[in-house]
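User: Some background: our group keeps a shared notebook of sequences we're curious about, and every so often someone picks one and asks for a predicted structure to add to the entry. Today it's my turn. The entry only has the sequence so far, pasted here. Could you supply the structure so I can complete it?
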Amino acid sequence: MTVNEDSFTNWKNREEITESMIPIIGKLHRERDVTVLLHSRSLVNKSVVSILKTHRFARQIAGEELSVTETLPFLQALTTLDLGPSQIDIGMLAATYKADDRGLSVEEFTAGAVAGATGANKIERCEPRDVVLYGFGRIGRLVARLLIEKAGSGNGLRLRAIVVRQGGDQDIVKRASLLRRDSIHGQFQGTITVDEASSTIVANGNEIKVIYASDPSEVDYTAYGIKNAILVDNTGKWRDREGLSKHLRPGIAKVVLTAPGKGDVPNIVHGVNQDMIKPDEQILSCASCTTNAIVPPLKAMEDEYGVLRGHVETVHSFTNDQNLLDNYHSSDRRGRSAPLNMVITETGAASAVAKALPDLQAKITGSSIRVPVPDVSIAILNLQLARETTREEVLDYLRNVSLTSPLRRQIDFISAPDAVSSDFIGSRHASIVDAGATKVEGDNAILYLWYDNEFGYSCQVIRVVQHVSGVEYPTFPAPAV
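Assistant: Of course. Here's the predicted structure to add to the notebook entry:
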């Protein structure tokens, strides 16, 4: 048999193993509210090739490829346990099992590693929590996709309605079409139908009411059976407590803003400061996409090295706020054509760091350049550290942070030498450390952080909503602190 035939046979064998994993992953999700992860990447509703690629990607961060033959035994072991709602990372199970010297079987090790999700320790499955989207633009539609995707178990979050201004004839049909097809993020994964008579979009069985209103005061949510809901404001029209309080009507319990909050509105970067949210807090902000991209790695660097000062320069994809062609704009430069120019503009991300990391004493400055790409940005974080270090030490540290720390859902790591912005479309992390571009000399470190300013940020929004709704399930094995 030739080498090529050996490789092909090996591939077909791995395909067969992966095919056997898919129904197990699906059943755990539907029946027990367990999300199976591989190095923080969900394997729920993924294809054979997607699961195999996720295993292969492990070599980028762990240094060696992970095989489905290694992870399948852990997945099978999970089916024998009395699991409650949780997220279980079989990549971490496989990695920590290799390092364990107690001589345990896979079944014994798995039972111990996920003990917090079994038996008397497991949390109860909760009733679905209603969610309303106020606005249905770029972020609103991606948040909708994520909410629909995560509704598979029938528990957790349930998208009940979107509130928009009436846009003319066939408004709901056109909005459903924008949800169904996206020029950047591709086709919606599932089916979408429209009932114009009842003003309802049905996406993968989820009935979503489309409510037309030009002001929050016009909406009676209780008339649609909506109760104790979390409203996600994607418009950015109101950013202070007074304005956002308009949403707190019967049926709405909390308001989450997908833009930086002003005044005393808490700016939350999930993974960093979500624990500061008071139980009775009704209004909060998810800050900006750039704030979410820089704060987790900034915290990681502060924790290990100390940060004396820093500057962030963001090279940001253009947004809907800019003009396609030169036209009037209230900002000085944003009126110039977005797809034809690099546009120097301001960023509030640096000042927002103080809200998310109040204990950070370092002064962080920032500026931004909008560039002619429709999605994925990069933040260049230039830091003066409290001690000298080396490039190798920083990269090893950040690689481990991305794999095993509490920030592993926020920080990703890539060592591919040929990576470019479009490679990160659809990334679910807040930011991705580019190892090849990282520069360290003495006490100066320059980190290049890619981020999908649409999808990655939307994932952070969902995490905040899950946290305040009480359906943010624990992850096992527990990340290293």
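Suggested note for the entry: Residues 166 and 212 are 6 Å apart (CA to CA). The domain at 129-259 is CATH 3.40.50.720 (Rossmann fold).
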